[in-house]
Design brief:
The structure holds 2 protein chains of 2 kinds.
Chain A (H helix, E strand, L loop, with lengths): L22 H4 L6 H9 L6 H27 L14 H25 L5 H25 L26 H34 L3 H10 L7 H34 L11 H27 L8 H32 L2 H12 L3 H13 L7 H4 L2 H28 L14 H24 L5 H6 L31
Chain B lengths: L2 E6 L2 H13 L4 E5 L5 H7 L6 H26 L12 H28 L19 E6 L5 H10 L4 E5 L1
Antiparallel strand pairs in B: 1-3, 1-4, 2-3
Classes of the chains: A mainly alpha, B alpha+beta.
Amino acid sequence: MATMAPPSPSPDTPAHRPNVPSAAVRFPAIRDYEQVDRDIGRTLSPSLGWFAALSIAILCMLLGATTWTYQIHEGLGAAGYQPPVMWGVYIITFVFWVGIGHAGTLISAILYLFRAGFRTSIYRVSEAMTVFAVMTAGLFPILHLGRPWKFFYLIPYPNWRLIWPNPKSPLVWDVFAILTYLTISSTFLYIGLIPDIAVLRDREKNPVRKSILAMLSLGWRNSDREWRHFTRAYLFLAAFATPLVLSVHSVVSFDFAMALSPGWHATIFPPYFVAGAIFSGIGMVFTIAIPLRKAFKLEHYITLNDLDAASKLCLFTSMVVGLAYLTEFQVAWMSGNKFEQDYFWNRVFGQWAWAAWIMLLCNMVLPLTLFSQKLRRNPTWLFILSLFINLGMWFERFVIVVPSLSHEFEPWQWGTYRPTWVDYGILLGSFGWFFMWFLLFIRQLPVMAMSEIKELIPPRLKHPDREMDHELTAGTVYPDDTGVIH
Amino acid sequence: MPGVMGAFHEIDAAVHAIEDLKKNKTGDITVYTPTPRHEFEHAMNHPPSKVRIFTLLFGLAGVTFGYWIPVWISDYWPIVVGGKAIATWVPFTILGFEVMVLIGGLATVFAMFGLSHIPRLTLTVGYDARFSGGHYGIFVDTEPDEVSMVEGILKKHGAEEVRRER
């Protein structure tokens, strides 16, 4: 779990030691374990704002469902597909949600392995975001079907002549990769939740809810035996999840990179997609966590230092994504390949220039403001920026999918694409679906890991003067007199 | 399971009680703590978790199975695609890796469940709701003639509450 804080003489005088993470550094306003239970438990109480947000989300989802029903009745032509562009908003939005889904587990698992302190505040939100984003992404291959009730044809199983799908196809890899990812991410989220569900179980007064929580907590008792195996299992799951994320989004990029279309057939795609996924995921974490922080008064838990650290990661991934954009242009320029050069010229100065410039502005230019420490520590700006990042990353996928399909090798393959209200309705419905699950989640289960936060609070001591035989784990943070972390 | 339970509010008191109980060889000790702490790990001195063995074995089984699936599929109805060999290990590495993670990850979780003896239908004796909040608990599974001595040790080290469980 998190790098734990050393015992402190008393809650009022927390230990101030250089290079040792302590409550004075991480959570200065939190006195004891009971306060953590109270503060985080408060987020489970419904509020008017929560009901309003849930109503809007359900309304959007119903709008999407109605639109889909219309599309099933009218056929896929209602969605604006016409040759040569037969992949449009649905595939763009599929990759958008898969990208957001990948970042959540990456933020949780990789920051856990690297013992990044700011992970504790945001990882539960990230993991929940992952599961719901992948659930949302999983709808799009089905939405893209003319006969969605035949969705099981997507699963790689043999036909009646016992011929199996080609295992060298990226579409087969995709099924394995995304199902594995959904399973491991859901497991990772659930395992981390078990000790917190036990806390809720022990405090619950309603007998029905208590028995449901007892079942979900699997009879967890916080015993030394359980923690010993839990911490190992959690570490190994994180170690599996980290390369899994890298592999899964690489596999999603192979859906494009294995094709010969100009703009797609590039070896840069796997790292480019992975960096983009982390970038968009951090954007969505800001979009979700900053309003939550404000609404539930969690400023003591999601501190400005945490936002500052996450912003640096956001800035770094933005620069990696920007480098990937520029590298694509450089490779096309130096390749001597007329089709590649034409395609990239068309991308920035041709019919899709408006989309490409939105992408470049939102993903490359605006995040540069995070070089300013003042803006990195400004939650309002981070929230606004995160909306631009979400927009920019959706348009990145638009720029990848549509211009390539609309400008292939020969003039008869050139065309255009105009999404219809059906596309936009289903896009809106996907946001409604995602936020509906997320809002239901935060009402039922803790949005922050109570047991991990407790690890960072110095435990109470009876004899503060006596030397404890504990292991001090070296950290990397220490505040100066103004409370700024260096 | 009869025994004695002590509830502590301070970690050092609980650790010293465990050390004293171990010195007096009073019986099996179970510690309840709201969050994992190295102090208890050192005091209890348990061997490392065996979860890692399951992770390794099932991870290896997974990668083997993950390679076997596409090789078998390709070999079952051999069609040359794109001039490539029937069984090509490079693209099959993706399936090998994914299945390794899937089986290895799930085995890790089930091993954790098995070794921790969960799921459990009822909370066993000695557990108290305070142990998921701000208290530490020590439960000693001891013989009836040693109960008084265990109670004495727990009280001596500052247990907030000591009670007999049966």
